[in-house]
Design a protein that fits this description.
- It contains no helices and 7 strands.
- The radius of gyration is 12 Å and the shape is globular.
- The protein is mainly beta and 85 residues long.
Amino acid sequence: DGTVYSAGVDSSIRVWSGIDGSSLRVLEGHPGEIVFALAITADGTLFSGAGDRTIRVWSDGEHVDTLIGHNGEVMALALGTHGKL
């Protein structure tokens, strides 16, 4: 669908139109930490990993879950080849 996702040092995730470059949405939920990694499933579920040692789960622009357990920053995310959890 041409959607572009970016993450940065302001702890936000930005959603952009890949067609006209307009900002579509800003997702916030990692408190004061750098967001390092993003992954998205085939159904549009977004995962973000950050310096706060969590993975946040987003659906339709809403934070729906937080995965905890890392002892350090979450620097990378990957999905299986089927694009599902």
